[in-house]
Amino acid sequence: MKSIVMLSILCLGTTFAVLSQSGKVYDNLSMTSEILKGERKYAVYLPPDYETSERSYPVLYLLHGAGDDQTGWVQFGEVLRLADNAINDGTATPMVIIMPDANSGQRGYFNQGKDWRYEDFFFEEFMPYVEEKYRVKNEKRYRAVAGLSMGGGGSFMYALHHPELFSSACPLSAYVGPLTIDDLKERLKRGTTTYSEKEIKEYFAKHNALNLIENLPVEDVKSVRWYIDCGDDDFLYEGNSLVHIAMTKKEIPHEYRVRDGSHNWTYWREALPVVLEFVSDTFHQH
Asked: What are the beta bridge partners of residue 116?
């Protein structure tokens, strides 16, 4: 009888240990960028079984907002706890989550003039680096992008600029880009770089989600699964609402959520488990 009791306790302990496995987060890693001429920091979440398996994983690029850096989703977004919980309860598949820093040097996920080519860095250096360093699958089907505010804008633009690379995109409380040319001109006045009228028009065409949705081939936009979420008290509600309307008119399938909340971490922490479930559903076979 004692042997049976001890065996039962051992089995229960083993089961508990398996169910409560934790992933790991490293939030002060860096790589060298020739394009940006220096070190670029990033954070990574590795799922609970990463160090004990030999498999390759899907990857989610999770982008922070203005004023944060690669540690934002770690410190304020609690990515370790929320991703562990979602994986352990089966609502999300094990995945690697990559969080780059877009707040050093110049702020933002896009090219800014000839001397600051962040978007080129992301696609030409950072993604290849990640796919070489970590056991992640390098196919569109297993690659997703999400982010909040400025990072929500990055999610929109990256998936619209490169629909061949991402299976799903989840912009949260997103800055969808300047809604008019005049809005863009006002914003550019705050910077130190001057742009010609031609450059301003080209930038607007490439960095306004509404313009891209209107002009890109519909099938390209449809090839990405979209989850768009913005609070009813968020100051960025207009752009997100207009994107929803534009996608609906074009018959582009997408999930659009307006929840009670504002532009803050309380809202985004509640959104992250849903994002993890949504991208996991895309990663799976149907």
From this structure: 112
Tell me how far apart the 2 most distant CA atoms of the chain are, in Å: 85
* Model confidence pLDDT, tens digit, residues 189-236: 777 677 888 888 888 889 999 999 999 999 999 999 999 999 999 999
Q: Residue 259 is encoded by which pair of tokens? A: 């929840």
pTM (two decimals): 0.91
- Does 71 reside within a domain? yes
CA 8 to centroid of chain Cα atoms: 43
pLDDT digits (tens, 9 = 90+) for 15-51: 444 446 899 999 999 999 999 999 999 999 999 999 9
Q: How far is CA 218 from CA 76, 163, 222, 249, 283, in A?
A: 36, 11, 6, 11, 22
Residue pair 2/69 in contact (Cβ under 8 Å)? The answer is no
Residue 46's domain comprises: 20-177+218-283
- Residue 184 inside a domain? The answer is no
